[in-house]
Amino acid sequence: MAIVSDVKKAVALVRKAVRARNAHRDVRHALRERGPLERGAFPIAVYFADSDVNMYQMRQWYRPLQELAKTWPVLVIARNAGGAKALLADGALPVAFAPEIKHIEKLLRRQPLRIVLYVNQNTRNFQMFRYGRRWHVFINHGESDKMYMTTNQYKAYDYALVAGQAARDRLARTLWNYDLDARTIEIGRPQADHYTGTVPFEPDARTVVLYAPTWEGDRPAAHYGSVRTHGEALVTALLADPRYRVIYRPHPRSGVVDPAFGEANRRIVRAIQAANEADPAARHVYDDKPELGWQLAVADVAIVDISAMVYDRLAAGKPLLVTRPADDRAVVDEGGYLGACEWLHAGDAADVIAQIERVRSDPEVTARLQHWVRHYFGDTTPGAPTARFHAAIAHLMAEWDAWHARSEDEAAADDADDDATD
């Protein structure tokens, strides 16, 4: 058995190496076809060291960054060939492929980067931190109460752009010796200004329910995924009732750790296909597309796990249920919205329709939801988050100018001292 296991591991490593080599080849070809980037054109970069597996972290920022680029051109620095290939294929923003440190240094000689934005906590971010005289800014890939949101790694960045007061409260409770006022800037959720996309069905009398579970997690403390514990029961109940339409949007990493989790995900997909074959007018949706926006806007109710999707939906200000983790070891921070949300327990998943009707019709539930929308995101008036995002970048640009001028003055003073000594 050990020999078989070793052979499987060796085969997996070879396949991974082949994929990486092919991705490198494809990226090099695409960059030759595109030609070199314009020198001195980009004051802002987004640093992305991940593979295509985590592209969802970049894709949710495309539209806000495209809007920002109308004022300050934005470049994406890709460190992984698979990630670079996906970024180039998307074509949302200009891409520089910098797999090695020498490539980063060459890029810095060619581009006047003032601000480097980071959407995740990849360990290779540390390689970029070595370059000073520019702001390193964490923008994250979502807002949530997961433990990821209070990691001590926040201290590595010059600034963090956070959603609102809830994020500040969360960091204040967790981080020691961290100056929130100096190092965080509230911007809301700029993505909420870009909830667009093509809805794959015509609206009708059916109640639309978005079920967007996260993956199974890689350790007990992060066992937030509900596909096995809630998902099959709640989707079965909804598919059986002709008053409802399901949009099923599972996390792209579903099943990467637990094969049984992946199989449960596939059973749900097959159930949706079967329901559509039995009733073509139902138009249930298995959504595995990269674009996120229309799903949040069109759904009458959303059912989500503890993940950034809670807060993506919260930013839309519409009814939602949050699945309560079935694993008691999962860390649940109830100091914020999760202490007041509408939970869906595994034992109630089969009775999900009653839970849906409750959150849609109870005025106290609605009022409580709106309170937490304001607490997490501040002013959610269309356009307000984008304005705050741009204002934050403008502030950082002005701060860069001030520090740059100060450095030049100090250098001039040092030169004067040297001349006087000679």
Please provide a written account of the structure.
By secondary structure, the chain is α/β, with parallel strands linked by helices. The protein has two domains: 2-141, Rossmann fold, CATH 3.40.50; 207-377, Glycogen Phosphorylase B (Rossmann fold, 3-Layer(aba) Sandwich), CATH 3.40.50. The chain contains 15 helices and 13 strands. The protein has helices spanning 2-34, 56-59, 62-68, 81-90, 101-110, 125-129, 165-174, 180-183, 227-239, 259-278, 294-298, 308-316, 352-361, 363-377, 384-421; strands at residues 44-48, 74-78, 95-97, 115-118, 135-138, 159-162, 184-186, 207-212, 244-248, 285-286, 301-304, 320-323, 343-344. The strands form two sheets. A seven-stranded parallel β-sheet has the order 3-2-1-4-5-6-7, with helices on both faces. It has a six-stranded parallel β-sheet with strand order 10-9-8-11-12-13, with helices on both faces. The longest helix has 38 residues, at 384-421. The radius of gyration is 24 Å and the shape is globular.
